[in-house]
Structures are given as structure tokens and as C-alpha cells.
Amino acid sequence: MSLFIANAYAANGAAPAGPSAWGQIIMLGVFALVFYFLLLRPQLKRQKEHKSLMEALQKGDEVVFAGGLVGSITKVDGDFAVIELANNVEVKVQRSAVVATLPKGTIKNI
């Protein structure tokens, strides 16, 4: 009827066949593998590294907090650490707030 669009006709009255059950199972498996390798595995690796970082904290380490503060650990007590931010300025924070450790002498160079 239209000048640019051809008319569509049914082919023998049969409905088009959908994907097979095995095809759907294989696609679900591929999706699960992609999810594992792109999302789950890297996150588990980061959690493991952060846990080992928190367990290795000791007196004298120079650390960076989640809020961006930089300080030196003066005391570690259970789940908390006392951090010296400046001369005679100490703050008690949770160990989980530590994002990274810095090389010795970094605070003096800042």
C-alpha cells in the first residue's frame, strides 16, 4: 500500500520459532561467567586486600583516611587506632576508615 514499505504476509500461517531451551541455558551460563569475572571477582579481591591492610596496621605507619586526612598511627587498640594529625593533635578512628598506607617520610614532604 505504501510507496516505500512493502506489505508483510504470513508464511504458511506458522509462528516463528523462539530460541531453544539449551540456547537459553547457555546464554544464562555465559551471563553468569561475565558477571563473576567483571564484577564479583574484582570486588572480592579488593575486600581481601583491604582486610589485610587493616590487619597489618601498626604504630608508626603513615596512613590516609577515607575523608582525605593524613596522619601517623601512635596506638592501635582493637578496632580503633589513635592517629596523630599534627603535633599534639590526636584523633581516635576506626581501623576500617584507613584507605591506604603511605611510605615513611611522606608526611614530612607534604
Work out the count of structural domains: 2
In whole angstroms, how far apart are the ends?
77 Å
The major β-sheet equals: 5 strands, antiparallel
The number of E-state strands comes to: 5
- In the CATH hierarchy, the architecture of the largest domain is Roll
Identify the CATH class of the largest domain.
Mainly Beta
Number of helices: 2
Percentage beta strand: 25-35%
Average pLDDT metric: 88
As residue ranges, the low-confidence spans are none
Radius of gyration: 29 Å
What's the helix-strand series? HEEEEEH
CATH topology of the largest domain: SH3 type barrels
Strand order in space, largest sheet: 4-3-2-1-5
Instruction: Give the helix level as a range of percent.
Output: 25-40%
Structure description:
There is one protein chain. The protein has two helices and five strands. It is α+β, with helices and mostly antiparallel strands. The chain has two domains: 20-56; 58-110, SH3 type barrels (Roll), CATH 2.30.30. Strands 4-3-2-1-5 form a five-stranded antiparallel beta sheet. A hairpin with a 2-residue loop joins β2 and β3 (80-86). It is elongated, with a radius of gyration of 29 Å. The protein starts with 20 loop residues before the first helix and ends with a helix.
Tell me briefly what this model is:
The protein is of the alpha+beta class and 110 residues long. Helices cover 35% and strands 27% of the residues.
